[in-house]
Structures are given as structure tokens and as C-alpha cells.
Amino acid sequence: MNSVFNAAENRASLERAYINYTRAGIKVRGLITTNPHNPLGHYYSTEALLEIARFCNKHSIHMISDEIYAHSTYANEQFPNATTFNSILSLDLSEIIDQNLVHVLYGMSKDYGASGLRVGVLQSRNKNLTEAVSAINLLSWPSFMVQDMWARVLEDTAFLQYFFRTYSERLTKSYSHVRGYMEDHGIEYFRGTNAGLFVWARILPYPEDNGTDEYSKLKERFLEICLGNGVNIADGDSFIPDNPENGWFRITFSYDEDRLSVGLERLTRSLRQIKIEMLS
């Protein structure tokens, strides 16, 4: 899984994908990166981002950087020197890629915990794109009250420093809690995280040679049990994972300790139930 963050390996993977899609008659027009990665919770290095930009420029592909979790960062004592956030807006791409191909997405939903306000930002120098989006946006314009509120927040430097410091401290505490759970229960998980609100974990390992259909049935039943027990986890297959093994899920941990403990207890109960059903 770490290969996705290696500049050279990621570039080679992108080139292979481009060739395969082209041979299949599919026109590749854009590449979207989520930085930090969702669901692995790891930032891309500067060199990895530059290689993606070089790839996009070579094939005249739009480079779209979704940075919605940019400030959702925390300390991981297992990786004290983990990569930190670099927006593509902070990089000098002038000699690397046509600036009309570079676009950045951001919003209040994740870093500010304000998904209900439905306000976001598209930054682009592509005049054709911004004019097209502006026309569409007339049908879903966020209220001026919301725009003014967010502007005031962004202009309050002292508040932002306090807010993101507190946010990071709370995420660190919650991540430590869920990581301890994984360790105590012998659950495989991606360890190189320091960003985002989730852990990528192989909660329901299932032998590959038992068949995809059988696993699909087992997974659906497991998710049904989880919902019945009042805990919601994200089906790993929804993220089109690079790792081929069955059983991966995304667990969101951005809750206070009491709620997180209740959720993990319900997850334990669900795992116990599915194992009993598998043996019966």
C-alpha cells in the first residue's frame, strides 16, 4: 500500500493505467488525487505530487487535487517523521504543467466539521472551467451569511491557530484509542497514517480461494449485523483498494473517547456474531 506514495512507483502505476484505458478506447481526461489519501490517511510527498503533475502534463490530463482533509492531521508516535501536508498551490508548477490543467478543491465539511453548511472552493486558472462552474453554481449558490461567516473565520488567525491545534490534539487522542483497539484485537491495519479521520483495517479476513461470491455474501451479512448493533463502518470495496485481499474496511474515529468506546464495543459484538455464524 505504501507504493501509492512512492513517486516513481506511483508514476509507473499511472502510466500503466493510462495505457490500459487507452487500449480499451477510453479517453482519460482527468486525474483526481485526495491529499491526504482517503482511506489510507497519509499525505503525498512533494516529489510524488510533482510526478503526478508531470504525468498529467505529458498526457494533457486535468490534475484535480481534493484537499478537503488538509488540516485534519495528528501525531502518530509510530511515525514521528511522517510526511506533512503540501498543497499543490504551494508548489512551483510553472515549468512542469500547463496551469490550465491544475485545479484544487476545498471546503468546510471535514476540517471544520461543518458539512451541513454546504460551502466549498474551486481554485483554477482555467477560465473556461470557472465560467462553466459559475453558471452551474447559480442553481446552488451558498447563502451570503455562510460565505461571510467562513470569511470571518479564515481572517481570524488567532482563532484558526487555536482551532487547528485543538483539533489535532483531539484527533491524536482518538487515533491512539482506535490504534490500541486494533493492536489488542490482532487486527491488521495500515500503520503509516497521520491525517484524515479514519483507519484502513482488515477487519474481516477471508481466504481468497473461497471465492468472491462467498465473500460478498459474508461481507453484506457483516455490514447488516453492524447496522443492527448500531455501528456504521465503510465497505472497503467502495474505495477501489490497491490491496487485493478481502476484508478491508474504513473506520472513522473522529469522536470523543466515550462515543468511540461505545462504537468499538459494538464492532466487537458484531465481529463475534459473524464468527459464530461462520462456524454454524
TrEMBL record:
Instruction: Give the record's keywords alphabetically.
Output: Pyridoxal phosphate, Transferase
Q: For the Aminotransferase class I/classII large domain, which residue ranges apply?
A: 13-267
Q: Name one Pfam family in it.
A: Aminotran_1_2
Q: Which GO terms describe its biological process?
A: amino acid metabolic process
Q: Which GO terms describe its molecular function?
A: pyridoxal phosphate binding; transaminase activity
Q: Which PANTHER family match?
A: AMINOTRANSFERASE CLASS I_CLASSII DOMAIN-CONTAINING PROTEIN (PTHR43795:SF39), BIFUNCTIONAL ASPARTATE AMINOTRANSFERASE AND GLUTAMATE/ASPARTATE-PREPHENATE AMINOTRANSFERASE-RELATED (PTHR43795)
Transferase keyword on record: yes
Mind telling me which InterPro entries this protein's record contains? Aminotransferase_I/II_large (IPR004839), Ethylene_sulfur-biosynth (IPR050478), NHTrfase_class1_PyrdxlP-BS (IPR004838), PyrdxlP-dep_Trfase (IPR015424), PyrdxlP-dep_Trfase_major (IPR015421), PyrdxlP-dep_Trfase_small (IPR015422)
The protein here is known as Pyridoxal phosphate-dependent transferase
What family is reported?
Answer: Belongs to the class-I pyridoxal-phosphate-dependent aminotransferase family.
Origin organism is Aspergillus pseudonomiae
Gene3D superfamilies associated with the record:
Aspartate Aminotransferase, domain 1, Type I PLP-dependent aspartate aminotransferase-like (Major domain)
